[in-house]
Amino acid sequence: MIETVVVAPQGGASGSSLSGVSWPAIFAGATAALAMTLVLLAFGTGLGLSMVSPWQGSGISATTFKITTGIYLIVIAMISSSIGGYLAGRLRSAWDGVHADEVYFRDTAHGFVAWALASVIGAAVLATPASSLIGGTAAGVSQGAITAAGQAGPMEGYIDTLLRSDPSQSNGNATPADTRADMLRLFTRSYRDGGQLAAPDREYAAKVIAAKTGLSQQDAEKRLNDVTNQIKADMDAARKATVALAFWITASLLLGAFCASLAATEGGGLRDGTWQRRR
Length: 279
Description:
By secondary structure, this protein is mainly α. Helix content is about 70%, strand content about 0%.
């Protein structure tokens, strides 16, 4: 007859009877991180970081946006993730009879999971305030491309420049509103995907400019070239700012994961009274 012997772990069996994941603590930490992120986003909006646009004369410049907003994203990640991770570690259930290295790993995992949960939920819950902060540069070009004819939008400024008349000249041959809308649709279609005016479109646009402003054909073509070059420069600056913003967001996410994991180990160590030994 074979007898089965059950050996109880040293230090009590309560550690093995508890789950290695304290979901209430993780949800509490993630909620705190989301709330702090929203507060800091609102504070950034008050500082003017939401007034960002690649279009000339509208909001701060793309270069200023890349630096200030990127640093501010880092600050948001550090503060909110640290608070969320600390709460996830400090509020988790006690694990009696679990080795110190295992406790350290679980605390780190609690902070990381709390950060991950906050990031996933925040992508949906905080989509509107986050887009108001960073959407100006990331969506500026596409917004100008999809603006419907007759509506005010970023591309309207370029059309105004093209059709600006010399006050000293007669304006008897004023272009009707539908011609202006046609020009707006022409530029929108050409620059929607980062392209440029085709040769027939350029010829047509130059003729419309000459008829509207009273300029010679040569001067109209020169004005057209100047404005199209400005459009390309602004769109290029917007793309560069968007690429830089993507790197800033990536860096802030990675730093947030690190801060949340580290803060969770600190919170768990303070809860168990082992913080000094860990240090």
